[in-house]
């Protein structure tokens, strides 16, 4: 029996796949309906096995050109005309990183995120056996980072700071961050040195962590209201 609550503790992709599918099937994700002016995009929280180390989620830093230059992100992008979100996210995964996934590799989805840029982003979750095929496109990807699931689930990763204190690589002391009430703060996912990620990407990583890795209560994990720094709104 796969647990519906509690942290993910297994070290295998197969066990993650079972847990994620179970928890995502039980998660009542929200969808943003079509409306004039809305543009659609899809991203993938892609978990891969590692030859040395535990399963990890793929995070990218975008190339220093074009839209979202130099920002942290997840594989994905805008939908082409006539394309579904599922089709788009699989295409973008291959174009950006050289990884091939099929619809059967998609384990479920999280909440649509209405970004301040005007895009509604649909996040999917997938699991692949390994990252051996990783071939990042230099035109779209500056660097690829494999964040182990244990790290993403660690207590010291999410921080809440005053919105005016956000910088591209902020490093506020823990005591300062702790004084900011969660409900009025801006989320920072501090995954490592020089790797502080805000919404929208940070919000989706946080929801993935809360829903899939930690099995938290659904009512407490909504993210559509999360504040975005000015530089992510383009």
From TrEMBL:
Does the keyword Transport feature in the UniProt annotation?
no
Q: The Nudix hydrolase domain covers which part of the protein? A: 38-169
Keywords, comma-separated and alphabetical = Hydrolase, Magnesium, Manganese, Metal-binding
- Record's InterPro entries? CoAse, NUDIX_hydrolase_CS, NUDIX_hydrolase_dom
Q: Does Metal-binding appear among the keywords?
A: yes
Cofactor section: Mg(2+); Mn(2+)
- Give coiled-coil spans as residue ranges: none
Protein name, as recorded: CoA pyrophosphatase
């Amino acid at each position: 029996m796969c647990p519906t609550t509690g942290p993910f503790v297994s070290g295998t992709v197969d066990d993650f796949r079972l847990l994620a599918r179970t928890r995502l099937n039980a998660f009542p994700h929200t969808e943003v309906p079509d409306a004039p002016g809305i543009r659609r995009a899809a991203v993938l929280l892609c978990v891969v096995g590692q030859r040395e180390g535990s399963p990890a989620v793929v995070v990218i830093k975008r190339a220093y050109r074009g839209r979202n230059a130099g920002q942290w992100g997840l594989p994905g992008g805008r939908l082409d005309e006539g394309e579904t979100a599922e089709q788009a996210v699989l295409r973008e995964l291959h174009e950006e990183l050289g990884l091939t996934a099929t619809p059967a590799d998609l384990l479920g989805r999280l909440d649509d995120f209405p970004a301040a840029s005007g895009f509604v982003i649909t996040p999917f979750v997938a699991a692949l056996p390994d990252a051996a095929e990783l071939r990042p496109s230099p035109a779209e990807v500056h660097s690829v980072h494999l964040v182990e699931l244990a790290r993403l689930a660690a207590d010291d990763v999410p921080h809440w700071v005053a919105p005016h204190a956000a910088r591209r690589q902020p490093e506020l002391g823990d005591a300062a961050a702790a004084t900011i009430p969660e409900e009025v703060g801006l989320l920072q996912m501090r995954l490592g040195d020089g790797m502080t990620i805000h919404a929208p990407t940070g919000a989706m990583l946080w929801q993935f962590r809360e829903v899939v890795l930690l099995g938290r209560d659904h009512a407490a994990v909504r993210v559509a209201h999360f504040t975005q720094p000015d530089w992510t709104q383009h």
